[in-house]
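The following record pairs a protein chain with its ligand, glycyl-adenosine-5'-phosphate.
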Amino acid sequence: MCFSCFFGNPVFVPAPNIDTIVSLAKRRGFVFPSSEVYGGLGSAWDYGPLGVELCNNVKQAWWRWLVHERDDIEGVDSSIILNRLVWKYSGHEATFNDWLIDCRKCNGRFRADKIVDNKCPSCGASDWTEARPFNTMLQTKLGAVAADDPTALAYLRPETAQGIFINFLNVQTTMRRKLPFGIAQVGKSFRNEVTPGNFILRTREFEQMEMEYFVAPTAEHSKLVDYWVEQYLEWFGSLGINRENLFLYEVPSEELAHYSKRTVDIMYKYFPEREKPWEELMGIAWRTDFDLGTHSKNKLDAEGKRINPDSTEDLSYFDEVAKQRFYPHVIEPAAGVNRTVLAVLMDAYSEKTNDKGETRVILKLSPQLAPIKAAILPLAKNKPEIVGMAKAIKRSLQPVLRAVYDDTGGIGKLYARQDEIGTPFCITVDHQSLEDEAVTVRDRDTWEQERIKVTDLAEHLQKRLKPFPVPESI
Ligand code: GAP
C-alpha cells in the first residue's frame, strides 16, 4: 500500500512538547526512568535497546565528522576522576557554583538565576533568603580511608575538557602536531544540579562531546568562534535538525564563564509550547590561554609569581617559524550527547492523520542515526520457506548494518511499529521472493516500494543510508 492510499492528504504534526517524546521513548524502548523498581531516582534515566543505539550513532557520527574526516583533530579518552588539583587550578573548586535561594514561605530551594518575575515556582510568594553559592561538582572518596579524611576527596569530572588540557603536551608531541589542531573527547560528566529536570535535558549524570581547538595567541579568535558555529549548524543539519529550530545566543559579558572572552550558545526549541522556547544545546567558547596557562608550572602572574606551584609540567608550545614560545588559545565547541539526542527525537517526530482521523507516529530519523536500519518481515509466518529466507536475509545483512527480524503481527502493524521507531527500510519477503530471489524494500518516509534482488540488497541499502543532505537554508 502506498502512502497516499492510506493517508489521502495527511496532516503532519511535529512534537508538540517534550512529554510526547518521554511517552514515545518509554513505550518503544528508547529511554526509561531509572531505578523504577525502587520508585525511581529524580531525573535519572536509563537508555533502552533503541536509546543506546541512537546515542551510539550520534557519538559515532560526531567522532567520524571531527576526528576521522578532518585532518586537524585527534581523539583522547581521559579518566573521569582526575587529580583534585586539576579542579583547583581550573577554577572549578572556587567558582563552579549555582546560586541558591530558599523561599521563606514554602521552604522550596531554587537556582536564583532561574526565578522568573521574582516569584516562587511552588507557591508564588516573593519572600527569599539571600543567595548563597553551592558547588555543583559531585564528590567522592578514593581508597579505604576514614569518612572525614580530606586528602581522599575527589570529584567526578563536571566537564570532559580538563582531561584534554592536561594531555595537551602528550598529544602534541606524540602525534607531532603543529598549531592549529584540536583534541576531541566524548564521555560522561557529572554535576550536582540543584534543579535537574525536563527529561534528559538536565540531569546530574550526562554525556558530553567536547573539542578543544588550539590556536596561536595572534589567531582571529572571534572569527574562529563564528567558523565553529557554522560548522556545527551544518552538522546538526546533517543529523536532520531543522535550522528553524536552532537559535544563536551571543552570551553577554556578565554571563561569561571565568575562562571565556566570547561564547555563542546554539539553542534548540525544546519548548515549542512556551513563550520562551529555547534552551542551550551547546556552547562555542573562546577560552583564551586560561587553561593551558593555569596548569603550567612556568606561567607567572602580573607580579611575577608562579600561578601554579603544584604543576610539574609546562604546557606551552614552541612555534618553529616565529621562534616563539607561548600558551595556545583555545576555541571550544562543547555539546551534550543527551541534548542532541532529545533535539534529534523532537525534530524527527511527526504525527500523520488521515481523512478518517487515524493517526500514526513516524519518526523521521536521519538514516545514519536510526537505531535499526532494516526490518525483515515475512509476509506469511506459517510458510517455513518464507520464514527461512527472511531469517537468512537478516543474517546476511547483520555484518554490515543493524537489522531485525519480526513476524509478531500482520504486515500493517509491523510497518507501523517500524515507522514509530524510525527504521528507514522495511523489507518484505513474500511468495514471489521464493521464485525471483527478490524482496520488496519499503521507504519509511514515502512508503514507496521497490523490488530489489537479494544479491544487491546490502549494497542498495548502504547507498541509501547516507546522512541527510544539508538543507540549503544553512
Ligand atoms: N567545557 C565547557 C562546558 O562544559 P557547558 O555549557 O557547561 O560547557 C556543555 O556544557 C554542554 O553539555 C551543554 O551545552 C549541554 O549540552 C551539556 N550539559 C551541561 N550540563 C548538562 C546537564 N546537567 N544535563 C545534560 N546536559 C548537560
